[in-house]
Amino acid sequence: MDEKEFLILIEQHSGILYKVSRMYMDTEVDQEDLRQDIVYQLWKSISKFKGDSQFSSWMYRVAINTSITYFKKDKRRPDKVELNIDIDVQDNEDNEPKENKLAHFYRAVKTLNKIEKAIILLFIEGYSHHEIGTQLGLSNGNTRVKLNRTKQKIKELIKTQGYEF
Questions:
Q1: Do domains 1-85 and 86-165 have the same CATH topology?
Q2: How does pLDDT run across 120-153, given as a tens digit for each residue?
Q3: What is the pLDDT of residues 67-94, one digit of tens each?
């Protein structure tokens, strides 16, 4: 695969980069750094993509693994200072309910562990229990249990934020 084909595939599946980076990093700057790192890792390992699965499935696998590694490195940085300030975003009448729901959802997801984040991300993307299990090395039964527990955990976390369904 040449560079042009690679860039076309990255562009076609750019949503994956944004979803994964938003799940694992808080700030836009960190999210952008992570997206760049994911693209670099994808390019570095493109020769390992054999086409046995869809490009998007392989891209998710690389993105999640890169994010977990990046997240671990980021947490060890001594210059990293965590800000726990809630910033009120000015409401826009048209998309406020959706944005409000998303803000609560992402705030809850950020408290999940790395496996829970990966499971919920793949579930949202429409992957089956079998596909999620295959990507994460889990059995179908274990995937189902972890997914149900993760969904319940997210609901509880959102409720503690004061949001009612």
A1: no
A2: 988 888 889 998 988 888 898 999 999 999 999 9
A3: 888 766 655 444 444 444 443 444 444 5
CATH class of the region 1-85: mainly alpha
Query: Can you give the chain as a three-state secondary structure string?
Result: CCHHHHHHHHHHCHHHHHHHHHHHCCCHHHHHHHHHHHHHHHHHHHHHCCCCCCHHHHHHHHHHHHHHHHHHHHHHCCCCCCCCCCCCCCCCCCCHHHHHHHHHHHHHHCCCCHHHHHHHHHHHCCCCHHHHHHHHCCCHHHHHHHHHHHHHHHHHHHHHCCCCC
